[in-house]
Amino acid sequence: MRKSKKEGIYFFWSTSIILCMLVALFVLGFTSCAKGKPSAAPSESPAAEASPSASPDSSEVPGSVTPPAAESTDARLAETADMGQEYVDKFIFLGDSTTYGLGYYDIVNDNQVWTPASGTLTLAFWSTSTIVYPDDGSEISIKDAVTKKQPEYMLITLGVNGVSFMDEEYFVTEYTNLVLAIKEASPNTKIILNSIYPISEGYPEENGITNEKIDAANIWIERIANSTGVKYLDSESVLKDSNGALTEGYDNGDDLHLNADSFKLVINCLRTHGFQ
Predict the structure, then answer these.
(1) Which of 25, 36, 134, 198 is the most exposed place for a label (fewest CB within 10 A)?
(2) What is the Cα–Cα distance from 168 to 178, expressed in whole angstroms?
(3) Alpha-carbon distance 193 to 209, whole Å?
(4) 155 close to 192: Cβ distance less than 8 angstroms
(5) How far apart are CA 63 and CA 186, in angstroms?
(6) What angle do CA 85, 134, 178 make, to 5 degrees?
(7) What angle do CA 214, 217, 222 make, to 5 degrees?
(8) Can you spell out the DSSP letters for 74-115?
């Protein structure tokens, strides 16, 4: 009896050990198969989708921006015959400090240039900023000025300050709202969104403005022009060198703003890419 009991215990433990070994072998085999099976690919971020040409390490550079692929749109003004000075005389030029120079250097009449009293306008603050209305010297909102003037043509040059702190969504939203506000205030005004001008290679990168960011923003601006039914002027192309920077000698000495001769190139580009 005692021997039979001992044999039963032995059988029980032997069976248990064998079962444990079989379970262990099954788990190891299952784990091995699971490791060999490819995992699902992570979903791409919106930025990656918008920038299929982005380099793998572009996110490693603080503040860097990879421009999305360029698109051909109906908004871009094609080359035309020279529209002449009388065409330029019909324009109101709205913008930041890169527009202020048009009046400062007498490239166009002072009363055609709309900027704040400070001489510059930041895109992010367009709705709360005022411009000096040349007809009477008052400081009024952009929308009020457009309502009063009802300009035949308007060239908007904005965004160089904005690229230092505005992401694509913020930039596009504010710029689009500006265009829509002008169209509402003056439905017959023919609006052209001008490209942001490049900066010289010597401009300090730590200021947050780079040609890489400007290139990206100009693609956004062209898309805004297309989506809002206005036009886009690619004036930056007449200012760039082979490296994509402002051509040497084209700035006024601060590596950011154009000199008189460079503004003349921009106006010539405007004249030879007429709104038709």
Answers:
(1) 36
(2) 15
(3) 20
(4) yes
(5) 38
(6) 85
(7) 125
(8) TTBPPP-S---HHHHTTEEEEESHHHHHHHHTTSS-GGGEE-
Which tokens sit at 92? Answer: 């109101």
Q: Which two tokens stand for residue 88?
A: 């330029």
Over the stretch 162-211, which tens digit does the pLDDT of each residue have?
Answer: 999 999 999 999 999 999 999 999 999 999 999 999 999 999 999 999 99
Q: How far apart are CA 141 and CA 121, in angstroms?
A: 12
258 DSSP β-pair partners? 251
Q: Count the neighbouring beta carbons within 10 Å of the beta carbon of residue 207.
A: 12
Could you give the CA distance from residue 142 to residue 127 in angstroms, rounded to a whole number? Answer: 8
Q: How many residues does the chain have?
A: 276
Fold of 81-271: Rossmann fold (3.40.50)
Strands (E), 2-76: none
57-84: pLDDT as tens digits: 333 333 334 344 444 468 999 999 999 9
For residues 237 and 78, the answer to whether their CB atoms sit within 8 Å is no
- Beta strands (DSSP E) in the chain are 91-95, 113-114, 130-133, 138-141, 153-157, 190-194, 231-233
Q: Assign residue 146 a region (left: φ > 0; alpha: ψ between -120 and 50; beta: otherwise).
A: alpha
Q: Cα-flanking dihedrals φ and ψ of residue 33, to 5°?
A: -65, -40
Residue located via tokens 């050990």: 17
Domain positions in the chain: 81-271
The pair of structure tokens assigned to 106 is 């007498």
